[in-house]
Amino acid sequence: MSDLTNMKIIEESFGPMEGKILLDVGCGSGALLKALIKRGAKVHGLDPEPSALEASRVRAPQAHLRQAGLEDAGFQAHMFDGIVILNSLHHVPREHMGRALDEALGMLKPSGVLVVIEPLARGDHFAVMQPLEDETDIRADAISALHAFVARHGLNALEREHDQVVELEDVDQLIRKVVAADPSRSSAVSEARPAMLGLFDKLGAVVPGGKKFNQPMASWVIRPLG
What we know:
The protein has a single domain, classed as Vaccinia Virus protein VP39 (Rossmann fold, 3-Layer(aba) Sandwich), CATH 3.40.50. 39% of the residues lie in helices and 28% in strands. The chain is built from 8 helices and 8 strands; from the N terminus they run αβαβαββαβααβααββ. Strands 1, 2, 3, 4, 5, 6, 7 and 8 form an 8-stranded mixed β-sheet that branches. Helix 2 links the parallel strand 1 and strand 2.
Protein backbone atom coordinates (compact mmCIF):
# COMPACT_ATOMS: atom_id res chain seq x y z
CA MET A 1 0.00 0.00 0.00
CA SER A 2 1.09 3.57 -0.67
CA ASP A 3 1.17 6.58 1.64
CA LEU A 4 -1.83 8.08 -0.14
CA THR A 5 -4.89 9.31 1.74
CA ASN A 6 -8.34 10.21 0.50
CA MET A 7 -7.53 13.93 0.65
CA LYS A 8 -4.15 13.54 -1.06
CA ILE A 9 -5.84 11.80 -3.97
CA ILE A 10 -8.43 14.57 -4.26
CA GLU A 11 -5.78 17.31 -4.11
CA GLU A 12 -3.55 15.54 -6.61
CA SER A 13 -6.45 14.99 -9.01
CA PHE A 14 -7.90 18.50 -9.00
CA GLY A 15 -4.71 20.52 -8.58
CA PRO A 16 -5.22 24.12 -7.40
CA MET A 17 -8.90 24.39 -6.50
CA GLU A 18 -9.30 28.15 -6.32
CA GLY A 19 -12.43 29.10 -8.26
CA LYS A 20 -13.17 25.57 -9.49
CA ILE A 21 -16.76 24.32 -9.37
CA LEU A 22 -16.79 20.98 -7.55
CA LEU A 23 -19.51 18.52 -6.57
CA ASP A 24 -19.34 16.32 -3.46
CA VAL A 25 -21.67 13.35 -3.96
CA GLY A 26 -22.99 11.93 -0.71
CA CYS A 27 -21.75 14.94 1.24
CA GLY A 28 -22.88 13.54 4.60
CA SER A 29 -21.72 15.62 7.55
CA GLY A 30 -20.01 18.19 5.31
CA ALA A 31 -16.40 17.44 6.26
CA LEU A 32 -15.21 17.22 2.65
CA LEU A 33 -17.29 20.23 1.63
CA LYS A 34 -15.55 22.27 4.31
CA ALA A 35 -12.11 21.08 3.17
CA LEU A 36 -12.83 21.95 -0.47
CA ILE A 37 -14.16 25.39 0.44
CA LYS A 38 -11.03 26.01 2.50
CA ARG A 39 -9.03 25.39 -0.67
CA GLY A 40 -10.99 28.00 -2.59
CA ALA A 41 -13.46 25.85 -4.51
CA LYS A 42 -17.05 26.75 -5.30
CA VAL A 43 -18.75 23.72 -3.87
CA HIS A 44 -22.03 21.89 -4.39
CA GLY A 45 -23.14 19.05 -2.15
CA LEU A 46 -25.55 16.25 -2.94
CA ASP A 47 -27.19 13.84 -0.50
CA PRO A 48 -30.56 12.07 -0.36
CA GLU A 49 -30.76 12.25 3.44
CA PRO A 50 -32.25 15.44 4.97
CA SER A 51 -30.31 14.94 8.21
CA ALA A 52 -27.04 14.82 6.27
CA LEU A 53 -27.84 18.06 4.50
CA GLU A 54 -28.67 19.71 7.83
CA ALA A 55 -25.24 18.71 9.14
CA SER A 56 -23.55 19.91 5.94
CA ARG A 57 -25.36 23.23 6.14
CA VAL A 58 -23.93 23.82 9.62
CA ARG A 59 -20.38 22.77 8.76
CA ALA A 60 -20.20 24.30 5.27
CA PRO A 61 -22.72 27.15 5.02
CA GLN A 62 -21.17 28.43 1.78
CA ALA A 63 -21.95 25.20 -0.07
CA HIS A 64 -24.87 24.88 -2.47
CA LEU A 65 -26.80 21.82 -1.30
CA ARG A 66 -29.34 19.62 -3.04
CA GLN A 67 -31.37 16.71 -1.68
CA ALA A 68 -31.21 13.94 -4.28
CA GLY A 69 -29.33 10.87 -5.36
CA LEU A 70 -26.70 11.14 -8.07
CA GLU A 71 -28.88 9.14 -10.47
CA ASP A 72 -31.56 11.88 -10.39
CA ALA A 73 -29.64 14.98 -9.32
CA GLY A 74 -30.78 17.14 -12.23
CA PHE A 75 -27.66 19.29 -12.60
CA GLN A 76 -27.02 20.87 -15.98
CA ALA A 77 -24.61 19.19 -18.38
CA HIS A 78 -20.90 20.04 -18.27
CA MET A 79 -21.29 22.09 -15.08
CA PHE A 80 -18.44 20.84 -12.90
CA ASP A 81 -14.66 21.02 -13.03
CA GLY A 82 -14.56 18.03 -10.71
CA ILE A 83 -16.83 15.53 -9.00
CA VAL A 84 -15.94 13.51 -5.89
CA ILE A 85 -17.81 10.34 -4.92
CA LEU A 86 -16.22 9.49 -1.57
CA ASN A 87 -17.54 6.48 0.36
CA SER A 88 -20.85 6.93 -1.42
CA LEU A 89 -21.23 4.76 -4.52
CA HIS A 90 -22.03 1.64 -2.52
CA HIS A 91 -24.97 3.49 -0.95
CA VAL A 92 -26.58 3.91 -4.37
CA PRO A 93 -29.11 1.12 -5.08
CA ARG A 94 -27.45 -1.61 -7.15
CA GLU A 95 -29.78 -1.11 -10.08
CA HIS A 96 -28.93 2.61 -10.26
CA MET A 97 -25.12 2.53 -9.87
CA GLY A 98 -24.37 2.48 -13.60
CA ARG A 99 -26.83 5.28 -14.36
CA ALA A 100 -25.48 7.35 -11.48
CA LEU A 101 -21.95 7.14 -12.89
CA ASP A 102 -23.23 7.95 -16.38
CA GLU A 103 -24.96 11.03 -14.96
CA ALA A 104 -21.74 12.14 -13.26
CA LEU A 105 -19.86 11.86 -16.54
CA GLY A 106 -22.41 14.06 -18.25
CA MET A 107 -22.09 16.74 -15.55
CA LEU A 108 -18.33 17.13 -16.06
CA LYS A 109 -16.77 19.82 -18.20
CA PRO A 110 -14.66 18.41 -21.07
CA SER A 111 -11.54 19.02 -18.98
CA GLY A 112 -13.17 17.78 -15.77
CA VAL A 113 -12.07 15.01 -13.43
CA LEU A 114 -14.17 12.38 -11.67
CA VAL A 115 -12.72 10.96 -8.45
CA VAL A 116 -14.36 7.87 -6.95
CA ILE A 117 -13.05 6.47 -3.66
CA GLU A 118 -14.66 3.35 -2.21
CA PRO A 119 -13.97 1.31 0.94
CA LEU A 120 -12.96 -2.29 0.39
CA ALA A 121 -14.56 -5.16 2.32
CA ARG A 122 -11.58 -5.81 4.55
CA GLY A 123 -9.57 -4.15 7.32
CA ASP A 124 -10.11 -3.47 11.01
CA HIS A 125 -12.65 -0.68 10.49
CA PHE A 126 -14.76 -2.89 8.23
CA ALA A 127 -14.60 -5.74 10.75
CA VAL A 128 -15.90 -3.55 13.58
CA MET A 129 -18.92 -2.30 11.61
CA GLN A 130 -19.71 -5.74 10.13
CA PRO A 131 -22.02 -6.90 12.96
CA LEU A 132 -24.26 -3.90 12.27
CA GLU A 133 -24.23 -4.31 8.51
CA ASP A 134 -22.11 -6.58 6.36
CA GLU A 135 -21.38 -4.57 3.21
CA THR A 136 -19.25 -7.24 1.53
CA ASP A 137 -21.57 -7.76 -1.42
CA ILE A 138 -22.64 -4.15 -1.98
CA ARG A 139 -19.03 -2.92 -1.91
CA ALA A 140 -18.13 -5.55 -4.52
CA ASP A 141 -21.10 -4.45 -6.61
CA ALA A 142 -19.89 -0.84 -6.53
CA ILE A 143 -16.46 -1.84 -7.78
CA SER A 144 -17.98 -3.98 -10.52
CA ALA A 145 -20.17 -1.04 -11.57
CA LEU A 146 -17.09 1.18 -11.78
CA HIS A 147 -15.18 -1.28 -13.94
CA ALA A 148 -18.18 -1.66 -16.25
CA PHE A 149 -18.60 2.13 -16.43
CA VAL A 150 -14.96 2.70 -17.39
CA ALA A 151 -15.12 -0.03 -20.05
CA ARG A 152 -18.46 1.16 -21.42
CA HIS A 153 -17.21 4.69 -22.08
CA GLY A 154 -13.59 3.88 -22.91
CA LEU A 155 -12.37 6.15 -20.13
CA ASN A 156 -8.87 6.93 -18.95
CA ALA A 157 -8.91 5.72 -15.34
CA LEU A 158 -6.08 5.55 -12.81
CA GLU A 159 -7.00 2.85 -10.28
CA ARG A 160 -5.08 2.49 -7.02
CA GLU A 161 -5.43 1.17 -3.47
CA HIS A 162 -4.40 2.82 -0.22
CA ASP A 163 -4.97 2.48 3.51
CA GLN A 164 -7.04 5.15 5.24
CA VAL A 165 -6.57 5.51 9.00
CA VAL A 166 -9.81 6.16 10.89
CA GLU A 167 -9.63 7.48 14.46
CA LEU A 168 -12.62 7.02 16.76
CA GLU A 169 -13.29 8.11 20.33
CA ASP A 170 -15.40 5.04 21.07
CA VAL A 171 -17.61 2.47 19.39
CA ASP A 172 -20.64 4.73 19.69
CA GLN A 173 -19.00 7.33 17.46
CA LEU A 174 -18.68 4.66 14.78
CA ILE A 175 -22.29 3.61 15.27
CA ARG A 176 -23.45 7.22 14.85
CA LYS A 177 -21.48 7.52 11.61
CA VAL A 178 -22.77 4.24 10.22
CA VAL A 179 -26.38 5.08 11.08
CA ALA A 180 -26.06 8.60 9.66
CA ALA A 181 -25.06 7.08 6.32
CA ASP A 182 -28.17 4.87 6.37
CA PRO A 183 -30.77 5.63 9.08
CA SER A 184 -32.50 2.29 8.49
CA ARG A 185 -29.61 0.67 10.37
CA SER A 186 -30.75 2.18 13.67
CA SER A 187 -33.11 -0.72 14.38
CA ALA A 188 -30.17 -3.17 14.47
CA VAL A 189 -27.92 -1.17 16.80
CA SER A 190 -28.97 -2.69 20.14
CA GLU A 191 -28.34 -6.23 18.92
CA ALA A 192 -25.08 -5.45 17.11
CA ARG A 193 -23.45 -3.14 19.66
CA PRO A 194 -21.98 -5.81 22.02
CA ALA A 195 -20.14 -7.55 19.18
CA MET A 196 -18.99 -4.20 17.78
CA LEU A 197 -17.68 -3.16 21.19
CA GLY A 198 -15.70 -6.38 21.53
CA LEU A 199 -14.12 -5.91 18.10
CA PHE A 200 -13.47 -2.23 18.79
CA ASP A 201 -11.53 -3.12 21.94
CA LYS A 202 -9.70 -6.03 20.29
CA LEU A 203 -8.70 -4.54 16.93
CA GLY A 204 -8.16 -0.85 17.61
CA ALA A 205 -4.71 0.61 18.23
CA VAL A 206 -4.67 3.04 21.12
CA VAL A 207 -4.14 6.72 20.25
CA PRO A 208 -4.71 9.85 22.35
CA GLY A 209 -8.45 10.23 22.77
CA GLY A 210 -9.48 6.85 21.40
CA LYS A 211 -8.40 4.17 18.96
CA LYS A 212 -7.38 4.01 15.31
CA PHE A 213 -8.37 1.51 12.65
CA ASN A 214 -7.23 0.63 9.17
CA GLN A 215 -9.64 0.83 6.23
CA PRO A 216 -8.30 -0.26 2.82
CA MET A 217 -9.66 1.91 0.01
CA ALA A 218 -9.77 1.76 -3.77
CA SER A 219 -9.69 4.94 -5.84
CA TRP A 220 -10.37 5.80 -9.46
CA VAL A 221 -9.29 9.07 -11.03
CA ILE A 222 -11.17 9.36 -14.31
CA ARG A 223 -10.43 11.89 -17.03
CA PRO A 224 -13.03 11.57 -19.80
CA LEU A 225 -10.87 12.94 -22.62
CA GLY A 226 -7.59 11.38 -21.51
